[in-house]
Amino acid sequence: MAMDERRRYREQPNARKDVPFVPFGFANEEWEIFKNKMKGGDEIRRMSSPPGSWSRLSGWEGYVLIRGQNIIWQMVTRIN
After folding, report:
1. pTM of the model
2. Count: domains in the chain
3. Nearest-CA neighbor of 1 among 67, 29, 20, 69?
4. Do 51 and 66 share a domain, yes or no?
5. Which of 7, 10, 62, 67 lies most in the core, judged by the most C-beta atoms within 10 Å?
6. Are residues 2 and 30 located together in one domain of the fold?
7. How far apart are alpha carbons 44 and 60 in whole angstroms?
């Protein structure tokens, strides 16, 4: 969820007020670790399992840090 979406969400009466208002909420520490692994020339790509995996309750999505041809680090942001 983008920060502007989070801002709108927080304004709603039923919003959870305990979620930290930082990128990735409770997973912010993991995001900071992810960012600290980066070096010049690296790429961050958003990844997701195939659509059929979600209907089989084995879906996932997140981000991977790519250096050259290799995945250096990954951060899963959603599973079902």
Report:
1. 0.71
2. 2
3. 20
4. yes
5. 62
6. yes
7. 17
Report which of 68, 58, 67 is spatially closest to residue 76, judged by C-alpha positions. Answer: 58
Query: Taking the CB of residue 65, how many other CB atoms lie within 10 A of it?
Result: 19
Residue type, 75: M
24 and 52 housed in the same domain: no
Q: Does one domain contain both 46 and 25?
A: no
Judge if 32 and 48 occupy the same domain.
no
22 closest CA partner among 11, 32, 36: 32
pLDDT tens digits in sequence order for the chain, 80 residues long: 567 777 787 788 887 778 777 888 888 899 999 999 999 999 999 999 999 999 999 999 999 999 999 999 999 989 99
Q: Give the range of the structural domain holding residue 70, as residue numbers without chain letter.
A: 40-80
Is the Cβ–Cβ distance between 37 and 21 less than 8 Å?
no
